[in-house]
Amino acid sequence: MMFTRCLPQKISIVLLAVFMLVGAAAFTLLAFSVLPIIGFLVAVPLFILAVYVIRLRLNKQCEIV
Predict the structure, then answer these.
(1) For residue range 37-47, what is the model confidence (pLDDT) as tens digits?
(2) Helix or strand (DSSP H, E) at 11
């Protein structure tokens, strides 16, 4: 019962974190090729935010990890 209630929350958090990590990787590649300063200024906070979202706990019943 708990598994089905927590599944949408877990899926949404993991998808959000994956999209942020992909965005951070894209901005890192962009920083190496086109925009060095701006790319890193966006990529580093985005990566930190993605790690924070992965470690986030929504409630005690639905732990992410």
Answers:
(1) 888 888 899 99
(2) helix 2-33
Q: For residue 61, what are the contacts with CB-CB under 8 A and spacing of at least 6?
A: 2, 5, 6
- Determine contact, residues 10/64, Cβ cutoff 8 Å: yes
Q: Which residue has the tokens 């951070």?
A: 24
Per domain, the residue ranges of the chain are: 7-55
Distance, CA of 54 to chain centre: 6
* Interval 6-15: pLDDT, tens: 777 778 888 9
Contacts of 30 (CB under 8 A, 6+ apart): 39, 43
Say how far residue 46 (Cα) sits from the centre of its chain: 8
Rg (CA), the chain: 15
